[in-house]
Amino acid sequence: MNTFQYRRGELCCEQVPVQQLAEKFGTPLYVYSRNHIVGQFTALDQALQSVEHTVCYAVKANSNLAILSALAKAGAGFDIVSAGELYRVIHAGGDPTKCVFSGVGKTREEIEYALKLGIYIFNVESEAELRQLSAVGQRLRRRAPIALRVNPHVDPDTHHHIATGKKESKFGISIERALAVYQEASRLPGIEIRGVQMHIGSQITRVTPFVQATRKLLKLMAQVRALAPATLQSFDIGGGLGICYKDQTPPTAQQFAAKVLPLVKNTGLRLLIEPGRFIVGNGGSLITRVVYIKKTPVKTFVITDAAMNDLIRPVLYDSYHEILPVRQSRSRKRKVDVVGPVCESGDFFAKDRPLPEVNAGDLLSVMSAGAYGMGMASNYNSRPRPAEVLVNGRRATCVRRRETLADLVRGEDRG
Ligand code: LLP
Q1: Does any ligand 1 atom lie closer than 6 A to the CB of residue 79?
Q2: Sign of CA dihedral 64, 65, 66, 68
Q3: Where in the chain is the domain with CATH 2.40.37.10?
Q4: Ligand 1 centre and the CA of 333: distance in Å?
């Protein structure tokens, strides 16, 4: 996590002191490091270089146009889950022919939009969706390129809200049924079989579940190839590569590649991978100013100007985010709760967290907030969403302005 570092006692993002950013752009503020984000992409891209591959960044992790544009320039493809995400990718200069479309509920309109733009593949999650794809394909006089998202029933050993490869999950087509569905696909007039896909969960900190799941799919890949000899092109291993929030030791890109590539090489297929968090997670933090300190007989609350509407991960996933004072402090640490102003007990960033002395007006940095931070932000409590800043070396660019009060009522009518 050396993208954010203290220099002479000041927390910096790359070469820029975070305090300067807070003063210029206000708080709460999302700050991202361009070099971290592109660096993570490049590390993975290079680790996979011995096979044909495309790294398709999962847009949902952070869909800011500047981040999409930086990744598009670096050569990334994209994993999208809605027409909105595809629109963003195109707007950012991304290549639709490197896009994979995931999700259990793609509507007919979304399918049409993506098919017309010529995306690489639809990852199909049900037979109903497959038939819909074929119908749209026929109507547009083309074949919809597909992979089935196969559920290999592997436990990714992660938080239950983000585990997707188990039997009871709503995602994918069970591995036992997959061949039959591929057989149906091969008979549908509006379908072209291109790949096999899986995605077993998120924040996975070991390679083993990926290896186990891939092994389980190898036989299926051979069977599908026999069905659709001319067209099977790719195996998509999904996203889910974990990062370090506190004390996790996830595999590096190299370690991941060392275990997974030997399996993939034997198939001769192009490898697709859909990382989100791995690319942006540690490349962003949420900067917030302390509004008040409130002491009760049992607790000290540090009340910040950021809230659960800006970063919902702690209450939703029990997630840990390191919290650093923007000005380094050597004072003795005391346990505090860091909370926001929203009217819910779930509005917290940390509970019983040892922090050095903090006063009203101080700036704090909530770390590892680059993934699923701003993307999941809302206007709950009628709070305008934060601005976002992208740092590149010594330069900082506001890549999304702070919402205004007028933005809050845009599109509404007094009736
Ligand atoms: N591909 C598919 C089909 C997905 O559903 C996801 C994430 C990804 C790729 C990217 O996964 P990643 O590499 O980022 O782990 N909001 C939660 C995470 C939800 C993940 C949903 N799917 C969080 O904040 O932890």
Answers
A1: yes
A2: positive
A3: 4-32+281-409
A4: 34
CATH class of 103-273: alpha beta
The CATH 3.20.20.10 portion of the chain extends over 103-273
pLDDT of 163 higher than 90: no
Q: How does pLDDT run across 291-300, given as a tens digit for each residue? A: 999 999 999 9
Taking the centre of ligand 1 as the mean of its atom positions, its distance from the CA of residue 201, in whole angstroms, is 7
Q: What is the pLDDT of residue 120?
A: 98
Q: Which residue's alpha carbon is at the smallest distance from atom 16 of ligand 1?
A: 372
Say how far residue 284 (Cα) sits from the centre of its chain.
Answer: 12
Q: Is the CB of 386 under 6 A from ligand 1?
A: no
Residues 97, 119: Cα–Cα separation, whole Å: 5
* pLDDT of 349 over the 50 cut: yes
**Ligand 1 in contact with 370 (CB < 6 A)?**
no
Determine whether the shortest distance from the Cβ of 44 to ligand 1 is under 6 A: no
User: Which of these, 379, 55, 97, 395, lies nearest to 237 by C-alpha position?
Assistant: 55
pLDDT band with cut points at 50, 70 and 90 for residue 1: very low
**pTM over the 0.85 mark:** yes
Per-residue pLDDT tens over the stretch 99-109: 999 999 999 99
Domain 4-32+281-409: top CATH class = mainly beta
CA distance 20 to 22: 5
Closest-CA residue to 277 (of 153, 376, 166): 376
Strands 270-273 and 77-80: unpaired
What is the residue with the minimal CA distance to atom 19 of ligand 1? 162
Q: Is 189 a residue whose pLDDT tops 90?
A: yes
Given the residues 56, 99, 244, 343, select the one marked as catalytic: 343
As a whole number, mean pLDDT of residues 255-263 equals 98
